[in-house]
Amino acid sequence: MSAYIIRRLFLIVPTLFLIVLINFAIVQFAPGGPVEQAIAEIEGLSTSATARLGGGVQQAEQGTLPVARGSDSESSYRGSRGLDPEIIAEIEKRFGFDKPAHERFWMMLRDYLTFNFGESYYQDRKVVDLVLEKMPVSISLGLWTMLITYLVSIPLGIAKAVRDGTPFDVWTSGIVIIGAAIPSFLFAVLLIVLFAGGRYLDWFPLRDLVSDNWDMMSWPERIVDYFWHLALPITAMVIGGFAGLTMLTKNSFLDQINMQYVVTARAKGLTERRVLYGHVFRNGMLIVIAGFPAAFIGILFTGALLIEIIFSLDGLGRLGWEAVINRDYPVMFASLYFFTLLGLVMGIVNDVMYMLIDPRIDFEAQGDR
To answer: DSSP string spanning 137-195?
Structure first.
């Protein structure tokens, strides 16, 4: 196992490099970069791109630098026609675009090796600080959603497999189908309308992870306030996620129940409970438990995006979305680097969990064949 893990760890480096390289190359061809947004701000077409630009850009906005309207100077930036080249050079220097693309790429990789992700273009804060600030929201949503989803789906899936074809299985399948048919964001809107002051009841808050007077609360009050804010977002995410896991658990157990070794165990006089939890459970839970790390990463960084927006929760999904919209490249690439690295590590954890749950699985021996 150790040799296999070492090989997988070494494969992280070229995989991560290629992912970052491809995305960096794509971004170079995407229109509307930070320089274009800064130019739009100067032209009066944007309100945020150069709010924190200093020096020549501020002088241009105040009219103290010459703006060569009608100039015939050529520029590769959309909307830059007529602007003094000194202003464009100042903007390029501010964002680091005064250097060639390949030089910027290698400088970025050099910094990322030491986890130096730079500063946000538009928030004047280190990217690491932004990520750490948003992390509690995303971890709270992802952790509690996965915990509740697994606690509900696994027992329900096992019960459906044992009672396959019974009225219990039919009625719960109807509930599962309804849960799978309703998108989590649509269910979130319904919860707001019903319980968050949208139209009927006003029982739950609609923004932030905790109340404004959090610091003044006792620890029991803080715990209640924390879960009070998370109740609706987590409910919306659980409804959208438990259906698939329930059916996966049921089908996995049904497949094992129909195996020959189960028939043999029953023929030996073992009780149904012993057969189910002594033989079927480990094999049936293999695919369910081993998929936990990947599922957690998916919910943590992508699945909660719309929920964060709907409930005004400032998490990692919302941070990444706003970085893409605002062309905040340091935040974009730092998020890509960090999430990709974490995803690759979780892939190794997946394989290790497979081998721990079922010792018969040996990826190292398969790779040698």
So the answer is: HHHHHHHHHHHHHHHHHHHHHHHHHHTTTSHHHHHHHHHHHHHHHS-HHHHHHHHHHHH
Which of 296, 291, 175 lies closest to 237, judged by CA? Answer: 296
Contacts of 66 (CB under 8 A, 6+ apart): 84, 86
Residue with tokens 């100077």: 73
User: CA gyration radius for the chain?
Assistant: 27
Task: Report CA 256 to chain centroid distance, whole Å.
Answer: 33
Return d(Cα 4, Cα 116) in angstroms, integer.
Answer: 30
pLDDT tens-place string over residues 198-218: 778 888 888 888 888 888 888
Amino acid at site 12: I
Residue 90 lies in a domain: yes
* Cα–Cα distance, 304 to 293 (Å, whole number): 16
Q: Judge if 302 and 175 occupy the same domain.
A: yes
- What single letter denotes the amino acid at residue 264? T
Q: Please answer whether residues 345 and 326 qualify as being in contact, where contact means their C-beta atoms are separated by less than 8 angstroms.
A: no
> Could you tell me if 131 and 335 are in contact, meaning their C-beta atoms sit under 8 angstroms apart?
yes
CA 233 to chain CA mean position, Å? 15
- The residues, any chain, with a CB within 8 Å of residue 301's CB and separated by 6 or more, are 138, 142, 316, 317, 320, 339
Helices (H), the chain: 2-29, 34-42, 56-62, 85-95, 101-113, 127-162, 167-181, 184-195, 219-257, 260-267, 272-275, 281-284, 286-290, 292-298, 305-310, 316-325, 329-357, 363-368
Contact in structure between 134 and 224 (CB atoms under 8 Å): no
Q: Which domain holds residue 191?
A: 127-368
Does 286 share its domain with 183? yes
Q: pLDDT tens-digit profile of 226-265?
A: 999 999 999 988 887 788 888 888 888 888 888 888 888 8
Query: Are residues 56 and 187 both part of a single domain?
Result: no
Q: Determine, yes or no, domain membership for 108.
A: no
Q: Which residues contact 21 (CB under 8 A, 6 or more apart)?
A: 105
Number of domains, the chain: 2
pLDDT digits (tens, 9 = 90+) for 98-115: 788 888 889 888 888 888
Model pTM score: 0.73
